[in-house]
Specification:
Elements: H1 12-17, E1 20-21, H2 27-36, E2 40-43, H3 47-62, E3 70-74, H4 78-85, E4 92-97, E5 103-108, E6 111-116, H5 122-133, E7 139-142, H6 160-168, H7 176-190, E8 195-199, H8 206-223, H9 229-236, E9 241-242, E10 246-249, H10 257-266, E11 274-275, E12 281-282, E13 285-289, E14 293-297, E15 313-315, H11 317-331, H12 333-345, H13 351-354, H14 358-372, H15 384-395, H16 405-408, H17 412-429, H18 440-451, H19 470-476, H20 488-499, H21 502-505, H22 515-525, H23 531-543
Parallel strand pairs: 1-5, 2-3, 2-7, 3-6, 4-13, 7-8, 8-9, 14-15
Antiparallel strand pairs: 4-5, 10-14, 11-12
Helix pairs in contact: 5-7, 6-8, 7-8, 8-9, 12-14, 12-18, 18-22, 20-22
Length: 550
Amino acid sequence: MVHLTDNLEEKHCEFERSNISIPRYKIEEIKSNTKKRPTWIHFGGGNLYRGFHAQIANDLLNKKIADTGVIVVETYDKEVIDKIYRPYDNRFLQIIMKSDGTLEKNLITSTTDSYYVNSSNSEDWKNVVDIFENPSLQLATFSITEKAYKLHDINGDMLSVVVADIKNGPVAPKHTISQIVYFLLQRFNKNAKPIAMVSTDNFSQNGKQFWESVMKIAEGWKKNGFVTNQFIEYLTDDRLVSFPWSMIDRITPNPSSKIAKLLEESGFKDTTILHSKKHTNIAPFANTEEAHYLVIEDKFPNGRPIFEKVGVIMTDRDTVDKADTMKVTTCLNPLHTALAIFGCLLGYESIATEMEDPDLLTLVQQIGYKEGLPVVVNPEIINPKMFIDEVILKRLPNKYIPDTPQRIATDTSQKIAIRFGETIKKYAESNDLSVGMLNFIPLTIAAWCRYLMAIDDKGEPFKVSPDPLMDVLQGHLRNINIGDNSDIHNVHSSLKPILSNHEIFGMNLYEIGLGERIETYFQDMIQKNGAVRNTLHQLVEEKGDLSIWK
């Protein structure tokens, strides 16, 4: 048996027998270098970081084109640091699950330190301040989820925690963005050295939203006299502080108990999965898919690692935006969300299994090829049609990826404006297309409203996935019951606050001509048990022709 913390020189043969690739660099030397002159800090220590970013750093080190590692900062869940990072010396086992069923196992040791950031956790807080004050720091990357960048609630009002942070100034800030502005302020006060702040979270124009959120906090502090105009100038000069845009794509689901069992059978001991009090699922291993893409705007004012040597595409902002728009609004994320919503309603617990369902397969084909591709701008670096082909034919059907509709359905209210709203806007603004041509996207939005009732298609209650707006959204539907399909006015009054909300969809769906159609689909889905399947199947039969892309 091998453990994560084993001495690699002493246990080299044991790792080989377990088919685990080990680092080709001196770990202690990298730790020492990083302590003296940190270059890369990452916020968000979850599965995406472990499945992707940490591998990039590991590859850089293995190729001898970097000599410092990554420092991880967790902003949400202290248990992640206390129970998963530090007990295993920040190491983990990366598992790449290939479509032929084979597992590629890599010991990743590129994370040199880990901290939980909270103003009450004084020691870790000071350590992160010290890192930001170090002139050697080149970049901070982020995978903190889309909702972490939002400073306003469903009604457009600023969150109370943000209001308090702005009022109190840079003293024990609570919101993640406020904390990040605090660290930037310490760097400014110390030496005003350049830095790149790189959001790698999965939404369009992430760098733009990141910068806007940072500036709202900073401008609030300036208005209240906590910071000077020079600090604002520092943040707005991209020769000093840049906010590059990025597109990231690698399905990294929660750690799988099946993978844990296979690892144990192969001789790897550390497989206990943590289910934290904050509902984080993480383990000493991270399972991920083989396909991966990372495209980053090449704007790093203090230098950067040679990312292109390890498969990262470095390019200009316009190309990043096109690649991201292609993926997030058309070629992958909308398909994923559609499977998540219908999968929960139809009782599925595997994305791969859903792809064996003819109705659901047609659903994602229609959303991707027929409704999405007509409004995609080709980024040139990735072919959109080939990208969808890979998603539908290889990635989503990969039964060795233990991904679930329940995981993908998390925080849907925070994602739906991007995943469907952007395509709807393009149809509404087009001279050649119209929203009346859309069928499967409005069907999916109706299914999401049906999902919010927390009753599956068999009439059984199910647990909805976490969502910050769930209580508010479900409150609008409290007067709707399965079988109560005769009163269209009741449906309208219940759905209108949702479908007209700009904070959710980025537009009023009634004003662009989709609200009533969604209401009709929704009413069809609440007629009786089995109505969700019937409504989906009927539309597949009527509109399921895919000749446009064959």
